[in-house]
């Protein structure tokens, strides 16, 4: 059985029913279900509030209701599997917990909250008199989850985050709005579509700040096969700068590196080029990163642009925008004499090292991607 189509633009999908093939937004009504048919559920009121508040101009809002349309409770395992599928399909999981220890103890809700509270796509509401919600509210505050003390305000908080939604169909529905609106993801997906590939499914496997991972299932048009064993990683693009002092030979040409502790590095410290991500255009970010990580202020006119490329296309969708600039002997001396740099608030501490290119090769000071960027800049220096 499918969803019921409503003139308000809100489609309700009950337990065991299949979701529609397209929508602009989807929400899941998580919270306690009455133990007996004689006790009223809070979900009809939630659906009515969603119908009232949802803007028809935004298209279709799907509401997943983990209750049987006809009040029948059967197939416990199937219920769990249906809920897991629809929770992952949802742009916002609306937790409303009017807990009553006799009629709606919300034991399952506690488990679901523990699984979803840090997902970035939940809101939490509960009447002030509802017992045993203090622990849940603690983690709502800790993870910045919007909270409310009544059902209308809880619904409003979820719809505020959804906004106008975004039209998605098929496998696209499995990418929640918080990732669908990510610039790196949109660029990656546009490239896949331009190549004729089809997203058949997706599952968010992690999200940490502006970084995310998405397990995808893709139909590869050029090979007419399905590939589903990879995770796509995403983060904001970076800008990277090769600062160099020319010499008589390529091996003697000096390159500005920054040494910094990075947890994934095998020995803790890594040598890399000045670079990073931030607000502004790629060149603006490059100049800011040079100043932050080396203390050197470079005028925009000195930068030469080499364009963007993916750094690790077998894993991450982000790109590095490469720039280079020739520096003077006096600037080299200042860099060598400078102390630690970086942004303390970001736990960043960098040490400047000016190193001949030949030494970089002999001692394997940088990774292959960094070496490629240095080679590109030196090859194009004249």
Automatic annotation (TrEMBL):
Protein name (Swiss-Prot/TrEMBL): NUDIX hydrolase
InterPro entries: Nuc_deoxyri_tr2 (IPR039470), NUDIX_hydrolase-like_dom_sf (IPR015797)
Alphabetic keyword roster: Hydrolase
Gene3D superfamilies the UniProt entry points to: 3.40.50.450, Nucleoside Triphosphate Pyrophosphohydrolase
GO molecular function list: hydrolase activity
Domain of life of the organism encoding this protein: Bacteria
Database matches in SUPFAM superfamilies: Nudix
């Amino acid at each position: 059985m499918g969803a019921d189509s409503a003139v308000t633009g809100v489609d309700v999908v009950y337990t065991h029913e299949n979701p529609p093939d397209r929508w602009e937004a989807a929400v899941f009504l998580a919270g306690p279900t009455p133990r007996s048919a004689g006790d009223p559920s809070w979900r009809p009121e939630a659906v009515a509030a969603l119908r009232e508040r949802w803007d028809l101009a935004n298209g279709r809002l799907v509401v997943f209701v983990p209750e049987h349309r006809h009040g029948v409770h059967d197939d416990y395992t199937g219920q769990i599997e249906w809920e897991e599928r629809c929770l992952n399909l949802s742009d916002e999981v609306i937790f409303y917990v009017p807990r009553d220890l006799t009629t709606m103890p919300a034991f399952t809700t506690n488990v679901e909250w523990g699984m979803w509270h840090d997902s970035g796509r939940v809101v939490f509401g509960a009447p002030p008199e509802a017992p045993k919600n203090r622990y849940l509210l603690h983690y709502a505050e800790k993870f910045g989850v919007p909270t409310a003390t009544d059902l209308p305000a809880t619904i409003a908080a979820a719809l505020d985050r959804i906004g106008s939604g975004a039209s998605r169909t098929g496998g696209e529905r499995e990418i929640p709005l918080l990732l669908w609106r990510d610039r790196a993801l949109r660029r990656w997906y546009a490239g896949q579509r331009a190549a004729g590939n089809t997203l058949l499914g997706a599952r968010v496997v992690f999200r940490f700040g502006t970084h995310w991972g998405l397990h995808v299932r893709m139909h590869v048009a050029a090979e007419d096969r399905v590939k589903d064993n990879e995770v796509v990683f995403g983060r904001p693009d970076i800008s990277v700068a090769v600062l160099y002092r020319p010499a008589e030979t390529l091996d003697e040409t000096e390159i500005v590196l920054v040494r910094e502790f990075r947890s994934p590095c095998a020995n803790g410290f890594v040598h890399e080029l000045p670079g990073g991500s931030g607000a502004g255009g790629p060149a603006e970010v490059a100049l800011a990163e040079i100043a932050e990580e080396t203390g050197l202020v470079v005028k925009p006119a000195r930068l030469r642009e080499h364009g963007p490329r993916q750094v690790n296309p077998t894993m991450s969708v982000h790109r590095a925008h490469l720039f280079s600039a020739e520096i003077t002997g006096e600037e080299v001396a200042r860099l060598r004499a400078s102390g630690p740099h970086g942004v303390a608030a970001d736990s960043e501490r960098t040490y400047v090292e000016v190193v001949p290119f030949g030494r970089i090769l002999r001692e394997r000071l940088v990774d292959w991607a960094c070496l490629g960027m240095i080679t590109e800049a030196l090859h194009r220096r004249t």
